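User: Run a structure prediction on this.
Assistant: Running it now.
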Amino acid sequence: MKFASCTAAILFAALVPATAQVVSHAPTPMHKMGAPASASTSAPSQVLSVTGKPVVRINGNVLTDRDLLREMFAIFPYAKQHGGGFPKSQEADIRRGALQMIEYEELVYQDAERRKMTVPQAQVKKGMDAYRASFGTDENFKIYLNTELGGSMEQFERQVRRSLLIEHYLNVEVKAKSKVTEAEARAYYHDNPKAFHHGEAVAFQTISIMPGESASADVKQKAKLKAEDVLKQAKATKTFEQFGLLAEKFSEDDFHVNMGDHKLVEASRLPPEMLTAIRRLNKGQVSGLLQFGSFYTIVRLNERILAGNVPFQEIRSKLLSDLQKTKYDRMRGDLDKRLREHAKVEEL
């Protein structure tokens, strides 16, 4: 249920008095809830009014800035890292996205009501229990109930029922109808061969001895002798690990910390001379000494994939998922347009 994912936003809104403003210090309950460290560090919006002011009227039903704030937190759950606000550079877009979402859900809810769709009482009870538990403590829930719903459990039940009804409607009208069959996926696969084509790729390890271009002739000669000695040892290796240990010990390129492993690389990205040498190798073979300027490199081929199309069975699961998501998004957008055609939406 969507409402379960918005607990932080609702609790935060509940802890702010109706006439207060959200400033740069987030309340403790909001602060305790985790968020990824990768959240944006741009300057937060310093003031965000929360007054219960109407923001949109849909067929006569009013939604307020509290509804908007909850959705803004659902879109940007890292707001607590910005002192309870939103990054200035993103706030307008977050607000617009949130407004469109609460409008969409209200349109869905009204249509579900018009069609007399229902949710079983047992499911509503289960939803109420789950939502209440998501607040963590009874005290947090009571704060929310008293501040947001005037202490009314009946209003709480109506809120949960509304959320479940929206979810049910979307399951029926969008999710169920957006399923993609394997036959449809196969047809897409065969009709779009370029989408599944890949170029040649190779996985390999290297050991590189790298005297500087400006090194003296004596230094370069010693580097060559070292490379020739390492080559003898590399030729004697039989496994990835054995070659990798030599790379960790002797290699001077950046890949030595990972046993010289370059993993899978598009062939077109490699120097022509290296690619030519690699193409002469069988899997597990070690090249001779390759020279690039003053550098010496030894290559072990671990895998070579020829250019071609990814087999359907390898891409099947991802293709089904991608096609279904595309179809779902399209149907969701079509539903939004259809519901708006006959609705009166007034942004205030």
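Confidence is low (pLDDT under 50) at residues 3-47.
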